[in-house]
Automatic annotation (TrEMBL):
SUPFAM superfamilies: Arginase/deacetylase. Catalyzes the formation of putrescine from agmatine. It comes from the Bacteria. Pathway: Amine and polyamine biosynthesis; putrescine biosynthesis via agmatine pathway; putrescine from agmatine: step 1/1. GO terms for molecular function: agmatinase activity; metal ion binding. CDD domains: Agmatinase-like_2. This is Agmatinase. It comes from Anaerobacillus isosaccharinicus. It holds the Pfam family Arginase. InterPro entries: Agmatinase-rel, Ureohydrolase, Ureohydrolase_dom_sf, Ureohydrolase_Mn_BS. The keyword Metal-binding applies. Its EC number is 3.5.3.11. The gene is speB. Mn(2+) binds at residues 112, 135, 137, 139, 216, 218. Keywords: Hydrolase, Manganese, Metal-binding, Polyamine biosynthesis, Putrescine biosynthesis, Spermidine biosynthesis.
Length: 290
């Protein structure tokens, strides 16, 4: 992709700088080729941008305005439809470029497998990378029906790449028995069901660490976010996820990037899922991009 001209489609509200001037770069990963239930998250990045135009640019939570942050919307990576491996390679190459240029990568998915190449790119830059994973699902499978490239596998891949002790999962309420057994025995951290309260206990331990945060929108209860491919009852509210984002903003961690994945607009004609996701993007820009 070229960075010397503006994205020709809808951009996230308040996009206010060129690529060269930007501190953060928003980019889309329109991929849903390995999902296990309902497809459609490849349309998430575009719709998150479109509904963001209904947001205020000022955050009363953080008392900051989007004009205070230089960010650039690079649009969607032109991923080859149906080719998961080539798409993963392209995402990794794209994020390599962002990191080489000193940018804060803020990715919009797409299915959760798109986080895997981001982890690989970040691991090349940071020796001590830690991942905060906020999700309904453990995503600790080695494969799904024999296929290792699956949206149910990225956190297992991260454990194998970085070491389980560098993975912190929150809000988990679904997975195979073997996934929960792996979490207990491997040394990774897993907080079941809740996000904000366990985060309060963990975040002080991560002070000074280089931390990447991946958020699957299905951590929200389906009543708050029906627009996702694998909805899971019993989740948190959007207010609780906002609280978690603000808790992370208030810590002394070095947040090196983030993504929000699994928004599938077709399943939410009310638009509350994509509206919530766009608000989370705003709060991440204002709270995490220093």
């Amino acid at each position: 992709m070229r960075f010397d001209e503006a994205y020709s489609g809808n951009v996230f509200i308040g996009t206010n700088s060129t690529y060269e001037e930007s501190k953060a770069v928003i980019y889309g990963m329109p991929m849903d080729f390995t999902v296990s239930f309902r497809p459609g998250s490849r349309f998430g990045p575009a719709r998150i941008r479109e509904v963001s135009l209904g947001l205020e640019e000022y955050s009363p939570y953080l008392d900051r305005h989007l004009e205070d942050v230089n960010y650039f919307d690079a649009g969607d990576i032109p991923l080859p439809f149906g080719n998961a491996q080539r798409s993963i390679d392209m995402i990794e190459e794209f994020v390599d470029k962002l990191l080489a240029d000193g940018k804060f990568p803020l990715g919009l998915g797409g299915e959760h497998l798109v986080s895997w190449p981001i982890f690989k790119a970040l691991n090349k830059k940071y020796d001590d990378l830690v991942i905060i994973h906020i999700d309904a699902h453990a995503d600790l499978r080695e494969h799904y029906e024999g296929e290792p490239l699956s949206h149910s596998t990225p956190i297992r891949k991260a454990c194998e790449l970085l070491g389980p002790e560098k993975i912190y999962s929150f809000g988990i309420r679904s997975g195979m028995r073997e996934e929960f057994q792996y979490a207990r025995e491997s040394g990774m951290y897993m907080a079941k069901f809740d996000v904000a309260e366990p985060l309060k206990q963990v975040l002080p331990k991560l002070a000074g660490k280089n931390v990447y945060v991946t958020i699957d929108i299905d951590v929200l209860d389906p009543s708050a976010a029906p627009g996702t491919g694998t909805a899971e009852a019993g989740g948190i509210t959007s207010k609780e996820l906002l609280q978690a984002i603000h808790l992370i903003a208030d810590t002394k961690m070095n947040i090196v990037g983030a993504d929000i994945v699994e928004v599938a607009p077709a399943y939410d004609p009310s638009e509350q899922t994509q509206i919530a996701a766009s608000k989370f993007v705003r709060e991440i820009l204002l709270g995490w991009v220093k």
